[in-house]
């Protein structure tokens, strides 16, 4: 009986070894399989090229012309627009306004990190507070501009609230460059706090919960957990928010344009560029200014990435 079984096993093994290898897939099938991922990427790549890279290429081309934005004729001027741009220092003085928004970005990042850390733990009504913090980011920027325009006007909401607590003021919040830029920067903090909050919250919640349990067993308090677990774990996201904040501070447009139109010393570089293109019909010069701004943002991003490289963080 045993011999019969062994003989059958040998025959089965021999038949298996003698079985022919499966034939390779036909060439058209292999080509189709290799092209399938690119077919899924075709639509987003087309949109990216048409609405991002093609306009950037046109902008660079316009920066070497004297186009007024209306005439069908273009006259090549070479680097004339860039020469004019760098020989008029007043065009770069508006970057001082970005300092207000840069300082506001620091406040925004610190506040978002604080709220994200607190609400990542088990606290009451945390889902409600998450919605409250993120809701301003969902509102249209134009609507926010008009709402806060009435908020800061003379005798408006802010003055009314201050009078209720016994503080009387006849200050024009948007009447001087210092108070106007401070007020506009505060609005940007309120609006974009939710974005950084969600980024930080997602990064914190991706940290394994076992690390917190082990830290509590070792007697670590909340501050120790933040220093040794949360801060190292969210370093890549923190680097990303710094890049977004710096680039956003250099290219502020929506809120100051809606609320003041760039008046009272609140004009930013982007507002100035828009005025060059659509108010003074210097689209070529405005395109050169936009190219310079793009290069500044890329340079700042490169320096920031060199200073704080994305090292792999291993918390386990």
Which helices and strands, and how do they pair?
Blueprint: H1 2-17, H2 27-62, H3 80-86, H4 98-119, H5 126-138, H6 141-152, H7 157-164, H8 177-205, H9 209-217, H10 222-233, H11 235-250, H12 254-259, H13 269-278, H14 283-307
Helix pairs in contact: 2-14, 3-14, 4-8, 4-11, 5-8, 11-14, 13-14
List the keywords.
flat; 14 helices; mainly alpha; 316 residues
Oligomer: single chain
Which stretches of 5+ consecutive residues score pLDDT under 50?
none
Relative strand content: under 5%
Report the average pLDDT across residues: 85
Silhouette = flat
Terminus-to-terminus distance = 57 Å
Cα-atom radius of gyration:
30 Å
Q: What pattern of helices and strands is seen along the backbone? A: HHHHHHHHHHHHHH
Secondary-structure-based class equals mainly alpha
**How many distinct helices?**
14
Give the helix level as a range of percent: 55-70%
Q: Major β-sheet, in short? A: none
Strand elements, count: 0
